[in-house]
Amino acid sequence: MGNKPQRIGIMGGTFDPIHMGHLLMAESVRMDYGLDKVLFIPTGTSPHKDDCAITPAIDRYIMTMMATYSNPCFFVSPIERDRPGPSYTIDTVRALVAEYEPGTEFYFLAGTDAVLELHTWNNINELLDLCHFVAASRPGKVRTIEQEIERLGPKAMERIHRLTTPELEISSTDIRERVRLGKSIRYFVPENVEHYIHKEGLYRK
């Protein structure tokens, strides 16, 4: 008998900064879907956001490394940081499929907001062929996600899975605003990330 194909989670995001909600979501999906590991992929230049307002990629990459280092199943990939131009998920997933052994199953972890925008993503139909999506939703948001999946058609209904994750109302936007106002972000982010933000003077302006 051959080895069982790997199951790899993909968690992309701006991670500006990465916070406890990201980590809790990734660990919940890893456990529920039996993933061998989760790749955190900080975006380089995001096609969906104003690049001028985003913290430099190197800082976001370092914070993601610091936040995930203690979990032996969490890894950080520089694949989008090192790619010139806008970072599209389809390019990243194609590269990962080419890099790993044939038969590897990929699970793209997406929060509620991302799932509701899937119909706008570049090459979404090809993405659904290349990887599963795990729609991690907070309690009370499941029906809205179901409507979006139905909108995308039969393939989406087969390849997008729903998982209700623990409710943790934390956002990167709120964390940046708290830093700007001089408020505590303790327990919003891992301690080493909190120290990095303060030491590097991030989000003060």
Provide structural commentary:
It is built from nine helices and six strands. α2 (57-68) runs antiparallel to α9 (191-200) and α3 (89-99) runs parallel beside α5 (124-130). α2 links the parallel β2 and β3. The protein is an alpha/beta fold.
N-to-C CA distance: 58 Å
The number of helical elements comes to 9
Helix % is: 40-55%
Placed side by side, the strands forming the largest sheet appear as 3-2-1-4-5-6
Write down the overall mean pLDDT.
90
Structural class: alpha/beta
Low-confidence stretches: none
What is the CA-based Rg, rounded? 17 Å
Strand content: 15-25%
Give the biggest beta sheet. 6 strands, parallel
Number of strands: 6
Order of helices and strands: EHEHEHEHHEHHEHH
In summary, what is this structure?
With 205 residues, the chain is of the alpha/beta class. The protein has helices spanning 20-33, 57-68, 89-99, 112-115, 124-130, 142-152, 154-159, 172-180, 191-200, and strands at residues 7-13, 37-42, 74-76, 105-111, 132-137, 160-164.
